[in-house]
Amino acid sequence: MTREVSGDMTKSNLFSKIKDFIHSDAFIFLLPAIILIIVFYLIPIVVSVYMSFTPLKNWNIARYIHEFVGFENYWRFFYMVTHDPTVRPIFITTVVFILVTLAINVLGGLGLAIATFFMGEREASSTQLLWLLPRMTPIAVYSMIWYYFFHGSAIGTLNSILMSLGIIHKPIDWGQSIIPWGPWMIIIFVNGLVGVSYGMIVFTSAISNIPKELVIAARVDGASNWSITKNILIPLLKWHIVYVTTWQMLSLLTTYDHIFLLVEWGLVNRYYGTTWALYIYNMAFTAAEKDLGLAAAAGVILVIVGALLGLLALKILGFEKMVKEPRGDI
Amino acid sequence: MSAGLRDIELRSRKTEILIVVTVLVFSIPLILGYSLLILSSFSKEMVTNLNPRDFIPTLRNWILFFEGRTAVFGGIRVNIWHIVLNTLIVALGVSFLVTLVGSMTGYAVSRLRFSGRKKFMALLMLLHAFPGSVMVVGIYFLYLMFLPSYQMVRLYSFFFVIVARASLEIPMATWLMKGFFDMIPWEVEWAALVDGASRLRVWRKIILPMVKPGVAAVMLFGFLAGWMDIIYVRTFLVDQTLATWIESNINAEYSYLPLVAAAGTFYLLPTIIFFLLAQRLIFTISATGVKG
Prior knowledge:
Strand content of chain B: under 5%
Mean pLDDT of chain A: 87
CATH superfamily of the domain at 89-286 in chain A: MetI-like
Order of helices and strands of chain A: HHHHHHHHHHHHHHHHH
Helix content of chain A: over 70%
Oligomer: heterodimer
Structural class of chain A: mainly alpha
């Protein structure tokens, strides 16, 4: 009897909670965001999960959508990852891409933030401007710039520099002939420069919040740049370093637009230049036979990996600290 | 807002020059890449091979570009202004929607107490970890499910691409606006609420005008997100934008590369203009958007 009552209570609690929410001020303000999040984040993920259990091909929804194949797409994906020489490279490429680019992003951003700290105002702002450019440049233009830079013929900038220095005698097709390091170098370089600016922005603003007195006192005591960096800046930036690392790791796991163009334009090898996220997109939209069941299965696994890493990130960062309760409400 | 903490005058001039030079050395590829693209757009041959003899100054690429001639000899003509207009529509649409939704949601999470507030903010963080390519697959499924009649498809695709692309920016816009709302003193709002104004009215008439820099920043980021997008545009939009035009022209057999360089330079212009306007803003924002 008591159990029934408490069961009723929790049910009506949840119900009244929702009712309260709908009648609260917050509901009106949150409604547009809630609708967009449901339609463009949650439903697409549910649809992807559904698709991963169907043999859907070439977007022929009417023909395939009512057929079920169970976990076949998942087994197929695992089998391809372990046996198919055209799919196997994707994993190692994704891992190498994330780890190396992440290191470049975090260390580069930290380096730039600290370097600009020791510069005059004007030099600092020009440096920041220059390094923000990759992030603000239209993806097609940015990819185009590196397309010419790493081009495999004599028109490529890297080739012509090395040739005029006499280091190489004929142009090297960096992205296609030096497997796997060539394509890896190019995709890491291209995305590395985009990501550096994120760390730079976060670290620069964090440094600007450090009390001036600390640095002035250290200077008066005769501290060098290096010891100011090591003993004051880095320890105070610890939280931000963790923040940028985790955030950037998630970004790199899911990014694919620059690489998409580099692969499409043939600058980098299709197999050693494709990451997991791009593989899904290409399988669904550009492959000759669009195997959507397979793409969706690969996607669902990626979502799970991303969500786990995301939850881990929230835990590491101490999410509670980031969201203070609003002060007062009438 | 002040420029923030700088190192004080006691540092030596010599080490400063050393640092500047080191940063410059690392920046060489970046400077080289952008300069060669822009130079090539004014030359008869691509100058990416750094050969000064290939630099033959000409305005022909730009003239060809504005005439919509993708090939030197005839070729298919496209109305480039139409493509620019398409790009602009997407950019402005995304900018508007992101600003509206971002400033509403940002206000709610900054100022209002509601059950599930923390969970909602955690969700916003987690949305960032959602892989874009998986979402595009699901979104394309929705796109096909609601495909209208043949005459309406182009309009529908514009609408769809704007809403879908804007959704992608909502977590960013919310966190950013929250930072700006957090800085406004509570007293202003209390006064208005005590006088009996509704929340919506207070938000629109009193609070929003106080966060103009934040609104400007979100508008700007929204615009650039829509302007630079390629994946959503190439997947959903029936018409071409500058991004897809460049995508299809860069290694097509008929294309004349310096012309593509001109198109790229043109596509880059708003970025540079907006960037110069917003440079100060970007660093003020990040101080508020992320825990300081």
